[in-house]
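Q: Given only this backbone (379 positions), what sequence would you predict?
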């Protein structure tokens, strides 16, 4: 397919892998921040094609994964109210709370609807003025503009029966927490391409300078990721620490100014809990005072709901790059995508879900599974 196949070319992949091997002279640990990158790495076997000195660990880059369990329970409490039409993207419908998920609640009579855009909620609210329409607004900087626009349009159009249950999070504070945590192993990052499309990468320049870590913003195709790894390795080997943009076909330094302006108009920074990690200061967004009337958490009085995460799950250590999914004794046995115990298995973008989907739970040698890049790339 034009504009896709050229980013999956085996010969080019083999060439970049050769350059990576010839560049590495000592052990390095890199973290890909985005869950989409994690899936591309595992699906294509990229981590298994790299030299032994180079390790990839998986960061807290899956928005569904980091949505805290207590926020899921708040969503369920609201969705069960008879006057509510609860709207969500499809990836949140089967995420379990303390007891059930939204699909089970729907089967029991709750009016739960999957939408393809936050703007769909405006139409639903206008069509049902006697009902309360609630949208589950989760995600990183990528989803914040559309979610902000929903609140902005609701106020502009005078739609009083619409509100947002907000669980927006920001990537840079999470990276800073990771880098400042004792025992951190991460020495460089593959930056989140979709997040930087909206937010730009000025904030990452501050992190690179403060913590002396290279950050390479890259995309999601195999060649994007391999070239990003090569650029990060070359920085590490030469003692440099800066931000490089290897996704210029999408990302600009200042991101999307119009989107950022709308987000700043509707939201304000706040402390936010991350599932498996805990509260990270100033790592989230909430509706500001001008839009607080559209805050579902306040409107339905669910602020006081608190829940306990599974004590078996090690997803917090996986999200911080300390451990890998196969280090968890529950992985692939008592914890599966059908019955997830924790953050990194609840979403298709989670690291544990990726390992499971591509057979990493099987007892086989590393070479038993072929890379989607093919034998030529393996060299």
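A: Predicted residues:
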């Amino acid at each position: 397919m034009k504009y896709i196949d050229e980013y999956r070319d085996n010969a080019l992949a083999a060439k970049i892998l050769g350059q990576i091997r010839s560049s590495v002279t000592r052990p390095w640990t890199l973290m890909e921040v985005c869950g989409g990158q994690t899936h591309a790495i595992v699906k294509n076997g990229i981590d298994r094609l790299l030299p032994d000195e180079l390790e990839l660990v998986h960061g807290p880059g899956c928005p569904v994964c980091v949505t805290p369990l207590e926020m899921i329970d708040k969503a369920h409490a609201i969705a069960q109210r008879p006057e509510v039409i609860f709207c969500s993207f499809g990836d949140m419908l089967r995420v379990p709370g303390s007891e059930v998920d939204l699909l089970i609640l729907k089967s029991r009579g709750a009016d739960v609807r999957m939408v393809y855009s936050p703007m769909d909620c405006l139409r639903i609210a206008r069509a049902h003025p006697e009902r309360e329409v609630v949208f589950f607004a989760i995600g990183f900087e990528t989803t914040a503009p559309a979610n902000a626009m929903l609140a902005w349009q609701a106020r502009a159009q005078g739609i009083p029966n619409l509100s947002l249950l907000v669980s927006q999070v920001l990537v840079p504070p999470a990276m800073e927490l990771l880098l400042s945590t004792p025992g951190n192993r991460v020495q460089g990052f593959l930056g989140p391409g979709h997040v930087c499309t909206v937010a730009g990468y000025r904030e990452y320049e501050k992190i690179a300078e403060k913590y002396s870590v290279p950050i390479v913003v890259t995309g999601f195709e195999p060649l994007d990721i391999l070239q990003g790894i090569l650029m990060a390795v070359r920085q590490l080997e030469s003692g440099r620490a800066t931000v490089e943009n290897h996704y210029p076909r999408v990302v600009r330094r200042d991101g999307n100014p119009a989107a950022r302006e709308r987000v700043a108009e509707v939201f304000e920074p706040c402390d936010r809990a991350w599932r498996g990690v805990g509260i990270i200061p100033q790592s989230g967004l909430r509706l500001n005072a001008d839009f607080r009337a559209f805050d579902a958490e306040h409107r339905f009085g669910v602020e006081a709901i608190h829940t306990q995460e599974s004590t078996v799950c090690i997803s917090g250590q996986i999200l911080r790059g300390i451990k890998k999914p196969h280090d968890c004794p529950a992985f692939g046995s008592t914890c599966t995508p059908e019955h997830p115990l924790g953050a990194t298995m609840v979403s298709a973008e989670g690291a544990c879900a990726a390992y499971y989907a591509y057979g990493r739970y099987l007892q086989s040698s590393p070479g038993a599974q072929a890379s989607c890049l093919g034998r030529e790339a393996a060299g």
